[in-house]
């Protein structure tokens, strides 16, 4: 009984202290708009998730991250190609191609320009079995598609041990309306 009485007294005091506060008497409304003043610098390029992480050598990360996309291919394609050929057995031999029928130079030319392409008049997807790299839906399994294009060879069957991240769904369902992303768990 003493515990309940102590809790009741503590609750009453906190309620009284909160409601007797004069902090809200000035009715000051703070500006909640974001502040874009100052100097900003891009920290990371991520048009296509994991591409920068995998194909840009550690000593070149800062340079890549501040290079505008229209200049990335000329500056970094050869590095991407060397890293792809060193990493993927699917591109180990001259003439090897991926499921897009791209050889190492063509594929890494596409990847080195780290932007997310968006189809304005067709299907928007990272890959749906027919359309490839025409945008991205939240439900697209981007990492598995990238792994398939890097390791899967001409028909996605080569190197199956490397061609799937084995994550089949998001932790929570996406929302049916904006902002679409599931709430944090």
From TrEMBL:
Which keywords does the record carry? Answer: Signal
- Superkingdom of the organism of origin: Bacteria
Indicate the secretion signal residues.
1-22
User: Per its UniProt record, what Pfam families does this chain match?
Assistant: DUF4331
Q: What is the protein's name according to its record? A: Uncharacterized protein DUF4331
Which organism is the protein's source?
A: Algibacter lectus
The organism that produces this protein has a lineage beginning with:
Bacteria, Pseudomonadati, Bacteroidota, Flavobacteriia, Flavobacteriales
């Amino acid at each position: 009984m003493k515990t309940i009485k102590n809790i009741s007294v503590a609750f009453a005091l906190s309620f009284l202290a909160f409601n007797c506060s004069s902090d809200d008497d000035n009715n000051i409304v703070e500006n909640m708009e974001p502040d874009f003043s100052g100097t900003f610098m891009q920290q990371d390029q991520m048009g296509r998730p994991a591409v920068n992480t995998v194909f840009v050598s550690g000593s070149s990360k800062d340079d890549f991250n501040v290079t505008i996309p229209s200049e990335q291919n000329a500056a970094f394609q050869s590095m991407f190609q060397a890293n792809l050929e060193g990493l993927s057995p699917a591109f180990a031999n001259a003439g090897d191609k991926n499921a897009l029928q791209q050889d190492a130079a063509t594929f890494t030319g596409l990847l080195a320009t780290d932007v997310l392409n968006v189809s304005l008049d067709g299907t928007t997807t990272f890959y749906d079995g027919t359309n490839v790299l025409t945008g991205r839906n939240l439900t697209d399994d981007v990492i598995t598609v990238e792994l398939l294009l890097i390791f899967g060879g001409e028909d996605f069957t080569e190197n199956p041990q490397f061609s799937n991240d084995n994550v089949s769904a998001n932790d929570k369902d996406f929302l049916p309306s904006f902002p679409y992303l599931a709430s944090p768990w």
